[in-house]
Amino acid sequence: MRNLLLAGVAGVAFAADPRDLQRAKTKVPRAAWKGSDFESMSQVLNGHMQKMFPKTKPCSEWTAKELQDYQETLYAHRHSDFDSIYSSTSDSRRFRHNSMAEHRQHWARANKHVEKHPHLRDMHRDGHCHEAVMWLVHHVPAPEQQTVFAQIPAPLLSTKRHVYDPVSMGKHQEIVNLYKTQITCAECHSGTGMLFQDWNDIPGIIPEDPKHPGWARQRRCDQNYEPACGPCDGIGGPYWGDQVDHFQPTNCEVVALPKDVPEADRGSPQFAEQFIVHQLGSDRLIRTQNAAKFAVYSQIRSTLWYDFSAEEDGMAKLRHDTFYDDLGYRWLDNGLVSEIHTQTKEQRAANITGPMVSMLHGLLGWGKDMGGLTCLADPVGVPVLGGKVTVKGVEHSAFLEGADYLGRIKIGVEYDGFKLGDKGHGDMKAKRNMTVDHYIKWFLHMYVDADPASPTYRQPVRFYGPYSGFAVYVKFDKTAPPVEVWDHVCPDNGWGEKESKPLHPCQGKKITDYPAMIVEKAHPEVCDFLTNKTVQDVSKPSGDHIRGNFGYFFAPETSNQAIVV
Questions:
Q1: By C-alpha distance, which of 421, 419, 538, 542 is closest to 472?
Q2: Which of 15, 366, 511, 532 could be a cystine partner for 370, CB 3.0 to 4.6 Å?
Q3: Spatial distance between the Cα atoms of 497 and 327, rounded to a whole number of angstroms
Q4: Other C-beta atoms within 10 Å of 534: how many?
Q5: Tens digit of pLDDT for each residue in 151-169?
C-alpha cells in the first residue's frame, strides 16, 4: 500500500489551497481545538480526527515501524510551502530533518535503542502517533487528506504523557528528546494559551483612514497578517482610545532587515530571572483582542517585581503596583492597584495556576465586600519571562521565545528625560532616538536595545500591544525584589507617592491583616493563606473581572460603578 501511494504521486505538482496556507500562518489554535492539559488536548483532537477521517485506529494498535511507514507516505504528499512557512518562524510544526532519508536514519537509531530497552516501546510509539497526526493535519493539503488519506486508517493520539526522571533521561536521552520534539502540539493545543475573543474577526485589521495615512498599520500589525509586518509596522505608541487616531505615532527608520542581522548579533526578547522594572505607559481596562465598544483607558506608572530564579527554587512570583493616573481613578488612593501572582512548583506540576491577589488600595480596610482585597485562581499563572518551565511533564518556553524577528530599527522612544522620582507622568511627546531589535509574537511587540554603547544594551526597553498595554521601561534593575514585596500591602514601589487613606493606612501592614473576598470557586484552596476570611466567601460575591495588562481585579457589584468611570 505504501509503495502504491508513493508511486501515485511521483512527479505530481499541485498548488496549495489559500485557506491551507492561511491556517499554516496562524500560530494560535482556536478554542475548540484546545484542551486544558495533555490528556484533554489529546481527547479533543481525537474527536476532530474521527470527524475528519472515516477510518481511524487507536495509537495502541500501531507499532512504531508501521507509523514510520505511514509518515513516509505523508511526507510524499506534503506541500513544501507549509514547511517553508513553519521553518521561517521556528514554528514547532516544522520538519526536524531536511529529507526523508535523514528522518529514516534518525528513526533507525531510535528503533535499535528501543529494541534493547523494551520499556521504552510505548513512549516511542506514542510519540510517532502525535508526530504523524501533526504531519497529516499541518503538512498535507486538504484535497489529499480527503481523498488519499480517507481511504486508509489514520492514527489517533495517545492520551498518556510519558515522563521520565533525570536518571532515566540520562540513559535514554535520544529517545526522550525525540519524544519531546514529537509532542510539541501540546505547546499550542493544551493549557490556557492565547484565546481569541472575536471569532468573527480574528485578524481585527484596522481600516486605513485617509486622514491619517499609514497610521492603521502602525497602530496594529499582528504576527499572522498578510502582507507580513515590516520592521516599522505595529510599533504603536501611547494611546487613549480604540480609534486609529487615538494614539501617538512615533518616528521609525529601518536600520537593517532580518536577513542582514545575524542571530548572534540580535538581542534576545527575554527578561532576567529576577528583576525590578519601573515603567510609564498606557493601559486599557476590560481588555479584549480587538476594539471594544466600552473600552476604558488610562495613562499609567507601574512597578513590576519578578522572581523566578530557577525551576529548583519552587516558587514563582510576580507583583505589579500600578498607578492609573487619569482623573477618574486618582481619587482611589492615587489610582493605585496592586496585583500579586504566586505559583509553587507543585501547583505547576498539577497545572494549577496558583492565587492572584488584587488590591484596590482606595478600598482597603472598608470590609471584604467592598473588593479592596480579593483572591482567585490566577487566569494564566506566573508567566515564564526567561528560560523554560515544565508543567505536567510538558516543557514550555519563555513567552517571547520563538517570536518573529522583524529587523533592527531606529525609533523615537517616549518619555525622554524622565527619571524615577520626578513628579507627574512624564512627557509622552519627548522622544529619544534609540536603535532597537523589533520582535513580534501574536499581537504583542517587544523592543530590545541594540546599541552597544547604550547602558541598557540587550535589555527590553519598550513593549506594545494594540489593545493590551503600552510601556517604556524607565528603570530596569536585574536584582532580586525585596522580600516584603510578596506579603506587605504597601512596600516602597519607588514612585514617591504618599498614600491618601488616613482612616485605613497600610504602612507596615501585611496582606493577611485585611479581610479578603475569595471569589475563586474551582480551587478555593489556593487562597487558604489568607486567614482573615470565611467559608461563605467562596459562594457569596458577584461582580466583574476588570482586566488590563498591568492590572486585573475583581469589582463587586456594590462598588462596580465607583471603580470604572
A1: 419
A2: 366
A3: 16
A4: 11
A5: 899 999 888 887 765 445 5
C-alpha distances in Å from residue 192, one per residue of 88, 233, 281, 489: 25, 28, 27, 29
Please give the Cα distance from 92 to 94 (Å, whole number).
Answer: 5
- Report the alpha-carbon distance of residue 70 to residue 262 in Å, rounded: 38
Instruction: Answer yes or no: pTM beyond 0.90.
Output: no
Whole-Å CA distances, 256 to 80, 114, 235, 489: 28, 48, 16, 46
Residue 34: predicted pLDDT:
59
Quickly count: other Cβ atoms within 10 Å of residue 79's Cβ. 19
Length of the chain: 565
pLDDT confidence of residue 80? 85
pLDDT score recorded for residue 524: 81
Cβ atoms of residues 121 and 114 within 8 Å: yes
Query: For residues 515 and 533, is the Cβ–Cβ distance under 8 A?
Result: yes
User: In this structure, how many other beta carbons lie within 10 angstroms of the beta carbon of residue 276?
Assistant: 22
3-state helix, strand, coil in the chain (%, to 5): 30, 25, 45
Strand partners, 460: 448
Q: Contact 415/426 with Cβ under 8 angstroms?
A: yes
Which residues of the chain fall short of a pLDDT of 50?
1-14, 166-167, 191-197, 199, 534-542, 544-547, 552-565
Give the CA distances from residue 25 to residues 18, 219, 472, in Å, rounded to whole numbers and listed in that order.
11, 21, 30
- pLDDT tens for each residue of 21-51: 666 666 656 555 656 567 778 888 888 888 8
CB atoms < 10 A from the CB of 256, how many?
A: 15
- Nearest-angstrom CA–CA distance, 168 and 170: 5
DSSP letter for 517, please: E
Radius of gyration of the chain, Cα coordinates, nearest whole angstrom: 26
pLDDT at 560: 32
Helical (H) or strand (E) element with 36:
none
Cis ω on the peptide bond leading into residue 482 (within 30° of 0)?
Answer: no
Measured between alpha carbons, how far is 178 from 299 in angstroms, rounded to an integer?
A: 48
pLDDT at 398: 65
Strands 56-57 and 394-397: unpaired
**CA–CA distance, 416 with 412 (Å, rounded to integer):** 9
Rounded to an integer, what distance in angstroms lies between the CA atom of residue 17 and that of residue 141?
7
Any idea which residue has 500591602 for its cell?
Answer: 489
Identify residue 396 by its one-letter amino acid code: H
Distance of CA 334 to the CA centre of its chain: 30
Place of cell 490566577: 378
3-state SS, one letter per residue, for 429-478:
CCCEEEEEEEEEECCEEEEEECCCCCCCCCCEEEEEECCCEEEEEEEEEC
**Residues 137, 143, 146, CA angle at the centre, nearest 5°?**
70
pLDDT 10s digits, 415-424: 999 998 888 8
* Maximal C-alpha separation, the chain: 83
CB atoms within 10 A of CB 1: 10
Model pLDDT, residue 86: 80
Residue of 135, 177, 161 lying closest to 37 (CA atoms): 161
- What per-residue confidence (pLDDT) applies to 227? 83
